[in-house]
Amino acid sequence: MPPTGVREAQRLETRARLFDAAVAAIGRSGLAGADVSAIAAQTGVARGTFYFHFPTKEHVLIELERSEEAMIVAELEHSATTPKDLPAQLAALVRHVLDAEKRLGPLIFRDMLGLHFSPTRPVGDELHHHPLAEYVIGAIAAAQADGQVADDADPGELGVIFLTGLFALLTTAAAEARTGLLDRYVKTISQGLEAR
């Protein structure tokens, strides 16, 4: 019987292979077209092993999204300028999200964002538990502490509203019209947040 450490290493390695194969399958065929049996076979495991690690294909996208969000937040925090300028922070966030779309490819990106509006989204995966949401909420709270945002505003609600609108625009807007639309979106939201 192998030691626990070896078994755990094998489990993590199998999980990583399944994750990579699932992401590649979703990138080729979209979430609906990705076949769990094919993913398991490609990885050399039984179909049930996939479900042991990921209850649904949606869970793969949730994990990928969290990883991407953590990377975006790290990049935003690394490139942060002082003093904090909320409109500039939101505009930078949008640029980094668009970079993630290029990195991931259109099928994965669309399906990942679409999950935010889908009844198949895993229960318990709330928007405000994501690194990107935490970043936006923190940026709004910091701007509020600086007097840039009204005292009676709720940074949590505003952060969720901003990201929900952003994700909806990214999911539905035509690619050629998105740049100007997203610039206007950030400007409108930023002006709406200003303390009066």
What would your notes on this structure say?
With 196 residues, this protein is mainly alpha-helical. It folds into 2 domains: 1-54, Arc Repressor Mutant, subunit A (Orthogonal Bundle), CATH 1.10.10; 58-193, Tetracycline Repressor, domain 2, CATH 1.10.357. Helices cover 75% and strands 0% of the residues. Helix 5 (86-104) runs antiparallel to helix 9. The N and C termini lie far apart (69 Å). The model has no long low-confidence stretch (mean pLDDT 90).
- Helix percent reads over 70%
What is the count of structural domains? 2
The shape is elongated
* Broad CATH class of the largest domain: Mainly Alpha
How would you sum up the major sheet?
none
The name CATH uses for the topology of the largest domain is Tetracycline Repressor, domain 2
Uncertain stretches:
none
Give the H and E element order.
HHHHHHHHH
Brief overview, please?
By secondary structure, this protein is an all-alpha fold. The chain contains nine helices and no strands.
Compile the SSE list and pairings.
Layout: H1 4-33, H2 36-43, H3 47-53, H4 57-78, H5 86-104, H6 106-114, H7 131-145, H8 155-172, H9 175-193
Helix pairs in contact: 1-2, 1-4, 1-6, 2-3, 4-5, 5-6, 5-9, 7-8, 8-9
Provide the descriptors you would attach to this structure in a database record:
196 residues; Tetracycline Repressor, domain 2; mainly alpha; 75% helix; elongated; Arc Repressor Mutant, subunit A
